[in-house]
Amino acid sequence: MAQAVGVSLTTQAKESTLHPKFIRDEDERPKVAYDQFSSEIPVISLARIDESGDKRAEVCRRIVAACEDWGIFQVVDHGVHPMVVEGMTRLAREFFALPDHEKLRFDMSGGKKGGFIVSSHLQGEVVQDWREIVTYFSYPITARDYSRWPDKPVEWRAVTEGYSQLVMELGCKLLEILSEAMGLERDGLSKACVEMDQKIVVNFYPKCPQPDLTLGLKRHTDPGLITLLLQDQVGGLQATRDAGNTWITVQPIQGAFVVNLGDFAHYLSNGRFKNADHQAVVNSKCSRLSIATFQNPAPDAKVYPLKLREGEKAVMEEAITFSEMYKRKMSNDLELARLKKLANEKKLQEDSKNPKFENKVEPCKVLEEILA
Ligand SMILES: O=C(O)CCC(=O)C(=O)O
Ligand SMILES: [Fe+2]
């Protein structure tokens, strides 16, 4: 199969087999079906959260328990109006349905800040993710580069600006609760961010001819403070608490936000709050859309536990900046992927030198799948 250059994934998805660049090692492939939903992740209503008293205390208690358990919870009655959610979702679907040349006008390969790309904006990936994204920086407002925001559909800018603002308000409300839970002032976490940045990534996962061999988005933790994720009703978001041995698929709930805690929240809480370990799987029946809003600290914000409880030792030796933390995370990920690739290549070479290999009735599975 020829390598498609300058072609969106939506177009490549029409092939009947998967291009080898999307094929994952066996240990990384999906273990649980995209639609085998679990009810493990709590769904929490934020109705009347602003009133003080028992209601707020009960909501806080449930959120904190979820943060300690999975680093994930879902929120409903969150104040982002259903019409705004519907508008954002509709425009995102319309964007991905545009012809390739329209989407590629915003191609962000080569390090551009924002726009459209297949798989990921990170360079040097060994295996590609089965997704297209369109991404833009929405806060601080001075960071907005409208030349990198799609101009089709025509309402894109107005609708996405409104959406970004409402999600920012919801994010700040959740940070107040988490700050209180950590024994800080209500503005403790937002102060630790220096300035609140926001980046939106709209993920589109086309139907996939061989979904069992690939991932929509590989296993990861989000780097920042919290992510507010909107997903459609298809399903595909999965979480693990044991480094990828077992997985659950998060139940989609119309209009709910999935809240994922990121690495920054994990370190600031001295490891008390989990950083959600998650991935997205795809399927052969229908495409899937999710909209991730990352609430991140400023690049020079300090990464270090904000408060140590009696007898606790800090989970990090020294304070670093958020941008340094991010850089180290990315280079670790790339290095791990590179080492894994080298190990696989070495194994293939050794197997082919081994005389027993030639007599085997079953060919080497990895090789067979690479050539499929
Ligand atoms: O599509 C999903 O459900 C997950 C998206 C995600 O984890 C991300 O964009 O970081
Ligand atoms: Fe994520």
Automatic annotation (TrEMBL):
Keyword Transcription: no
Pfam families: 2OG-FeII_Oxy, DIOX_N
Cofactor: L-ascorbate
Keyword set includes DNA-binding: no
Residue ranges of domain Fe2OG dioxygenase in the record: 193-297
UniProt keywords, alphabetically: Flavonoid biosynthesis, Iron, Metal-binding, Oxidoreductase, Vitamin C
Residue ranges the record marks as coiled coil: none
GO biological process: coumarin biosynthetic process; flavonoid biosynthetic process; response to molecule of fungal origin
UniProt-recorded Gene Ontology molecular function terms: 2-oxoglutarate-dependent dioxygenase activity; L-ascorbic acid binding; metal ion binding
Pathway listed: Secondary metabolite biosynthesis; flavonoid biosynthesis
Protein family (similarity comment): Belongs to the iron/ascorbate-dependent oxidoreductase family.
Protein name: Flavanone 3-hydroxylase
